[in-house]
TrEMBL record:
It holds the Pfam family adh_short. Belongs to the short-chain dehydrogenases/reductases (SDR) family. This is SDR family oxidoreductase. Transmembrane segments: none annotated. It comes from the Bacteria. Keywords: Oxidoreductase.
Length: 258
């Protein structure tokens, strides 16, 4: 991925990781189109930054994704990077029958959203020089957070999908996977101030430094996520699952009582 001069489409760009990275890409000279479902959030994220543009998109809407893809390549013919960042996370109790609305929305946004948008833009991207697709997964793709089972499963699915996408597109489009740890954002209630989570600015700075490397690593891994990413490889999966479960519960409890 070029270190400047890209035209980047960033889903979920109105807040959290998407907003923070959009700002860093903008500041290094990239044009960024941030998309999301709330215009007010997008406007705040773009304020004062002439190279950031906004557009409304609901990745759950199949027809809207197709129409958006046609329009965005018309408006930004130099678009060469798709950054699949939008996602939601819900806590779930699997021990009794429940309403599956949250689980189904998680699958639709976190799995089908990136697949739909990638599919809608793939013919354009394969014709672009220096094209790249970035998928945002999670350390929880490798060791699940049992309190968020559908989220963890969705990120494992996109990790697998990314491997296949990279292999099929070898030599045509660069495919990069960004694997965050727990980061202080509004992804879940109280997470923005939760003890033990990585500060957003520190995370975005570390990620931007890796995107500045040449060649760009095919996996963007900050130090804080290696505990999860390497657990199975290092033969400590069960131990890490237990530690993660206990630590996450304690962090949520501590945050809730602040």
């Amino acid at each position: 991925m070029k270190t400047s001069g890209n035209t980047i489409l960033m889903t979920g760009g109105g807040s959290g990781i998407g907003e923070a990275l959009a700002h860093r890409f903008h500041d290094r000279g990239d044009t960024v189109i941030i998309v999301g479902r709330r215009q007010d959030a997008l406007d705040r994220a773009a304020a004062g930054r002439e190279l950031i543009h906004t557009a409304i998109l609901d990745v759950e809407d199949v027809a809207a994704v197709a129409a958006f893809a046609k329009q965005v390549v018309t408006d930004f013919p130099s678009l060469n990077v798709l950054f699949n960042n939008a996602g939601i996370m819900k806590f779930e109790d699997l021990t009794t029958a429940r309403d599956l609305t949250d689980a189904e929305a998680t699958l639709s946004i976190n799995i089908l959203g990136p697949i739909r948008l990638t599919n809608a833009l793939i013919d354009h991207l394969t014709r672009q020089p220096d094209a790249a697709i970035v998928t945002v997964t999670s350390g929880l793709a490798h060791v699940p957070l049992i309190a968020a089972p559908t989220y963890s499963a969705s990120k494992a699915a996109i990790h697998s999908y990314t491997v296949s996408l990279r292999t099929q597109l070898g030599g045509q489009v660069e495919v990069i996977e960004l694997v965050p740890p727990g980061v202080r954002t509004d992804l879940t209630p109280g997470q923005a101030n939760r003890p033990g989570y990585m500060p957003l600015d520190a995370f975005a700075d570390a990620v931007a430094a890796q995107f500045a490397q040449q060649p760009t690593p095919r996996e963007i891994l900050v130090d804080e996520v290696q505990f999860l990413r390497q657990a199975e490889r290092e033969g400590r999966f069960d131990e890490t699952l237990k530690t993660l479960t206990e630590r996450a519960a304690a962090q949520r409890a501590a945050g809730d009582h602040q």
